[in-house]
Every structure is written in C-alpha cells, then in structure tokens.
Amino acid sequence: MDPVTLAFYGAVCGFLAAFVPRASRAFRFALGVGVGLIAASFLPPLRAALGL
C-alpha cells in the first residue's frame, strides 16, 4: 500500500472513529462499510486532481 492510500484511509478511519455513536456492533460495522465504500470511490479522482 502506498503512503497516499495509507494516509487517506487512516484519516477516514480516524474521522469515523471520532464521530461513531455508542451503538450496536452491527450498526458500527454497517457505518464503517458505508464510509469505506464512499472513501474508496473518492480516492481515485482525488489522486488524479492532486496529480499523485
């Protein structure tokens, strides 16, 4: 995994962890999957826009 990808997903996971409500494990898992899918869809265009 290259440093840009690692930093991007680290930031997304950190942001997610900061705002996850105290809820069931299933809800937190579903929220994590949803955010992961959104983050994965934004990374390629973001890298292209930044020339990375």
Explain this structure.
It contains two helices and no strands. The protein has helices spanning 3-19, 25-50. α1 (3-19) packs antiparallel against α2. It is elongated and about 40 Å long.
List the helices and strands and how they pair.
Blueprint: H1 3-19, H2 25-50
Helix pairs in contact: 1-2
The radius of gyration is 13 Å
Sheet with most strands: none
Look at the helices and sheets and give the structural class.
mainly alpha
| N- and C-termini, Cα separation | 14 Å
Contiguous helical run count: 2
Helix content: over 70%
Mean pLDDT across residues:
77
Q: What is the approximate shape?
A: elongated
Number of domains: 1
Assembly category = single chain
Low-confidence stretches: none
